[in-house]
Specification:
Blueprint lengths: L6 H29 L5 H28 L44 H15 L11
Helix pairs in contact: 1-2
Length: 138
């Protein structure tokens, strides 16, 4: 429990209390506005306590994580020969990315007929700048 009384944790506890009290106060303020006739305030009156609950949820999760502490490395299981498996890492290893050169695929037996027709169409559009695509004779 001493881990939760460091200056950083005291600041987190204070921030949690201030946020929860503030959010609940804003929710109460919206309830008073809603009862005075502002219908849209009913939505906000529900929303602010949800925010307060989220703050409590995050705070509780962080407290549990801090109390759990750093995980100790797990004992490796002995192999069939009676020695421990030294090659099996306990955590995934993050390595530097490797740059791979991309090689274009080799064309098989010449140019594709559809590609050649499309290139002729594009060339015609380039040669006739005022023409519409429907004017293409091909």
């Amino acid at each position: 429990m001493k881990r939760l009384w460091t200056p950083a944790w005291i600041a987190r506890h204070v921030a949690m209390v201030v946020l929860v009290v503030g959010f609940l106060g804003l929710g109460w303020w919206q309830v008073s506005r809603a009862t005075a006739g502002n219908a849209i305030s009913w939505g906000y009156a529900v929303e602010w306590p949800i925010f307060a609950g989220f703050v409590v949820f995050v705070w509780w999760r962080e407290v549990r994580h801090a109390l759990r502490g750093p995980e100790a490395p797990a004992e490796r299981e002995p192999t069939a020969a009676g020695t421990r498996a030294a090659d099996a890492p306990t955590r995934p290893v993050v390595r530097r990315p490797v740059r791979v050169a991309r090689v274009p695929a080799a064309a098989h037996g010449g140019e594709d007929a559809d590609l050649a027709a499309y290139n002729r169409y594009l060339q015609w559009l380039n040669d006739n700048p005022g023409a519409k695509p429907g004017d293409y004779p091909g």
